[in-house]
Amino acid sequence: MQSLKNAINKNMISNAYIFNGAKGCGKLTAARVFAAGINCTNKTDRPCGYCNSCKKTDIGANPDILYISPIGSSIKIEQIRELISAISKKPYENPYRIIIIENGDKMGHEAQDAFLKTLEEPQGNNVFILLTENFNTLHQTIISRCQLFNFQSVGKNIMRDYLTNKYNYNADEVGFAIEKSSGIIGRAIEILEKGEILSDDIYYDLLGRLLTKKRATALAIYDEIIGNKEDALNLLIFLMEWFRDVLLYKYSKNNGSVPRKRRSLLEEYDRRIKEEDIFAIIDKIKSGIRLMDFNINTKNIVDSIFLKIMEVFDG
Question: 3-class secondary structure for 175-209?
C-alpha cells in the first residue's frame, strides 16, 4: 500500500497497525515486507532486499522481529506479559523492533487489557502489527490507537506476476490456482504447493456424477475426499467457484479459464441449468459454509447441497 511505503520513505512510523482481511489475503507477507522496509539501511527503494537487515528478515533470522500467535484457540495473557518483558530492552541490531501478532483478534479479554497498556504507555522504538480477520473483536480503545488497513482480494494480474516471478510453476498452473483461489494469494500459493491442480480430477468426477443425478456415488466421493471440516469447506469453495464459472460462461461463452479437458463438462452444465437456478445453488452453498461454523454435521450439509444441484437439472 502506498501509504505504508510513504511512512517508510518519510520515516514516519506509527506505534501500531492493524492489517485486517480474509485468511490468505497477504497480510503476513505485507507485514514482513513492511518490517523489512522499516529497518532497511538503504537510502532509497526500501526494503532493498540486499542489506544485512533485509537478508535476515527474509530468512526469518532478524532478532528484532518478534512473532506472537495463538496457543490453542487464543492469545493468552501470559504471552502478552512475556512480550512486555522482552520489549522493555532496546532493539538488538536495528532502529526499530517489530512485533507481528498473528490472529490478533484471538487475544483473550485479559490479554487485550494487558496489551492496551503497552499501547497507552509505549516504550522504545517498538512497532506492533496486528493481523486480524475481524478487527471488531478487539477493544475499541486498541483499534483507536492503531492505523487500520483493510486488505482486499488481490487483482488477477498482480497475482499472476507475483506467482510467476517468485515460484517455478508454468502459466497454466498459475492461471488455474488464481481462478480457484478467489483472489486470496495465500490460497493460490497453497494450491500450487500442495499440487491440488493435479488432484482436482476427483472434483470434476463428482460434478459428472451430480450431472447424472447419481447421489449415492456422489456421496461415495465425499467419503473418499473429506477427512475433516477444512476438506468439506474446500469442496464447497470449489463448487461455488464452479457455478460462478458456469454463470460467467452463460454471459460470455468464454471458457478459457477452465482446463481444456473440462470444457465439455462446463458446456453441459450451461445447457442443462438455468441462470436463476445457478443463483439459488450459490446461495445454498454460501448458507452451507455459514452452517459449518455451528458444528452441524458436514456430510448432511454437503448432501443437502448435492440434492439442490441435482433437482434443477433438465432432462
Answer: HHHHHHHCCCHHHHHHHHHHCHHHHCHHHHHHHHH
- CATH number of the domain at 220, please: 1.20.272.10
Residue 286 zone, left/alpha/beta (φ > 0; ψ -120 to 50; rest): alpha
CA–CA distance, 267 with 147 (Å, rounded to integer): 48
- Domain ends where: 108, 134, 150? 150
Evaluate whether residue 292 is within a structural domain: yes
pLDDT in tens, 87-133: 988 899 999 999 999 999 999 999 999 999 889 887 778 999 999 99
Residue 225 located in a structural domain: yes
Structure-derived torsion over alpha carbons of residues 65, 148, 185, 49, reported in degrees to the nearest 10: -40
Task: Give me the residue label for grid cell 532493539.
Answer: 91
What CATH number has the domain bearing residue 48? 3.40.50.300
**Sign of the torsion angle spanned by Cα atoms 95, 97, 100, 104:** negative
The reported pLDDT for the residue numbered 182 is 63
Stretch (H or E) spanning 246: helix 229-252
> What residues have CB less than 8 Å from 43, skipping those under 6 apart?
none
C-alpha cell at 266: 462446463
Which amino acid is present at 4? L
This prediction's pTM? 0.56
Say which DSSP state 136 is in: G
- Residue 275, H or E segment: helix 275-291
Residue 113: domain span: 2-150
Strands (E), the chain: 16-20, 65-68, 97-101, 126-132, 147-150
Residue whose C-alpha cell reads 544485512 in the numeric block: 52
